[in-house]
Automatic annotation (TrEMBL):
Gene3D superfamilies: 3.40.50.880
GO cellular component: cytoplasm
Pfam families noted in UniProt: HTS
Localization per Swiss-Prot or TrEMBL: Cytoplasm
Chief location of this protein within or outside the cell: cytoplasm
Record-listed substrate binding positions: 163, 192, 249
Site (Important for acyl-CoA specificity): 111
Catalytic activity field: L-homoserine + acetyl-CoA = O-acetyl-L-homoserine + CoA
Keywords annotated in UniProt: Acyltransferase, Amino-acid biosynthesis, Cytoplasm, Methionine biosynthesis, Transferase
EC number in record: 2.3.1.31
Domain of life: Bacteria
Protein name listed in UniProt: Homoserine O-acetyltransferase
PANTHER family for this protein: HOMOSERINE O-SUCCINYLTRANSFERASE
Organism of this sequence: Desemzia incerta
Length: 308
């Protein structure tokens, strides 16, 4: 089913060539029954690339999803043009009175900083607090997941001895969970991070449940027991070449970077990467939107912007 975004968005134009339809104009009352409003807080530097990654996953669901992109007002992106942000993004002030069925908070390359040292941390806190009354369910990715776990549950991140970089095998902890319907007992996810979260601390937090983890990558998927928050420590949204681009970028800058694990055949960068995570990524996002957001959201009937 289609997504609904500005047809001039570059990512929408590219995805149209992949048969991901962009819905234009008003929808009928019958269509509204199957439609959701999704807010995406994009904190990644290459915002246009992240838009494409996320819209590809969101577009693979039987629901019609209206997507609104959110940016921080307190920090100006250095890698995305001001014109792009002005045309396709809103700030919290512009959506403050609106309700959304779902929200995605992306990762961000600020792991080396304490949360309070991040330039836009006060604004992110305000957005997360606002989401408690204006968003039914929020999906937090990588650093975004760490930020959510820290703000809502006081669970701090810790530095890893070396960068976790590659594709890792994960085991399902609760096959009956709605988020994992149809998921294989073992699935793969990309990771690219310098920090992690302690499993023991999460287990001691009564409001949280671990749904999937990895012997190498640690805890991967966590949900709040009321399904209002989902945290993923990896990057299910990554394209086939995302880790390769990161690897080549760091090599070109002379940084110490290992070949991403389990990514190239025989760990040989001369060969094309093996995509092992695409089906799990689509299924995870589809399950979240279908079973958790659509079935649970009290906001989906409130399609008029600004209604309390």
């Amino acid at each position: 089913m289609p997504i609904k975004v500005d047809p001039q968005l570059p990512a929408a134009q590219k995805l149209a060539r992949e048969n991901i339809q962009n819905m234009e104009g008003e929808v009928s009352a019958e269509q509204k029954k199957l439609s959701l409003r999704l807010l995406i807080l994009n904190l990644m530097p290459l915002k246009e690339t992240t838009e494409e990654h996320l819209l590809r996953l969101v577009g693979n669901t039987p629901l019609e999803v209206e997507v609104v992109f959110l940016r921080t007002k307190s920090y100006q992106s250095k890698n995305t043009s001001a014109a792009h942000l002005a045309e396709f993004y809103l700030t919290l002030e512009e959506v403050r009175d609106e309700k959304f069925d779902a929200m995605i908070v992306t990762g961000a390359p600020v792991e080396h900083l304490a949360f309070e040292e991040v330039a836009y941390w006060p604004e992110l806190v305000e957005i997360m607090e606002w989401s408690k009354s204006h968003v039914y369910s929020t999906f937090y990715i990588c650093w975004g997941a760490q930020a959510g776990l820290y703000y809502f549950y006081g669970l701090d991140k810790y530095p890893l001895s070396e960068k976790l970089f590659g594709i890792f095998e994960h085991s399902v902890s609760d096959s009956k969970a709605s988020l994992l319907k149809g998921m294989d007992d073992v699935f793969y996810l990309p990771h690219s991070r310098h920090t992690g979260n302690h499993k023991e601390a999460i287990e001691k937090t009564a409001e949280l449940e671990i749904l999937a983890e990895s012997n190498e990558a640690g805890v991967a998927l966590i949900r709040s027991r009321d399904n209002r928050q989902v945290f993923i420590t990896g990057h299910a949204e990554y394209d086939a070449d995302t880790l390769e681009k990161e690897y080549m970028r760091d090599l070109a800058k002379g940084r110490s970077i290992a070949v991403p694990q389990n990514y190239y055949p025989n760990d040989a960068p001369s060969k094309s990467p093996i995509v092992r995570w695409r089906s799990a990524a689509h299924l995870l996002v589809s399950n979240w939107l279908n079973y958790i957001v659509y079935n649970g959201s009290t906001y989906k009937a409130e399609q008029t912007i600004g209604k309390p």
